[in-house]
Amino acid sequence: MKPTNPVFTGLQTTIFETMSRLAIAHGAINLGQGFPDVDGPEDVRRVAAEALMSGPNQYPPMLGLPELRQAVAESNRRFYGLDVDWQSEVMVTSGATEAIADVLLALLEPGDEVILIEPLYDCYLPLVKRAGGIPVRLRVTPPQWRLDLDALAGAFTENTKAILLNNPMNPAGKVFSEEELAAIARLCNEHGVYAICDEVYEHLLFDGRQHRPLMAFEGMRERAVRIGSAGKTFSLTGWKVGYVTAAPNLLEPIAKAHQFVTFTTPPNLQRAVAYGLGKQDDYFEDLSRSMQAKRDRMLGGLRDLGFGVLPCEGTYFATCDVTTLGLEGGDVEICKRMVEEAGVAAVPVSAFYVADAPTNFVRFCFCKKDEVIDGALERLDGWVRKQTGAGASAPLGVASVGGD
Question: Which CATH number fits domain 15-39+282-388: 3.30.300.130, 3.40.190.10, 3.90.1150.10, 3.40.1620.10?
Answer without folding.
Answer: 3.90.1150.10
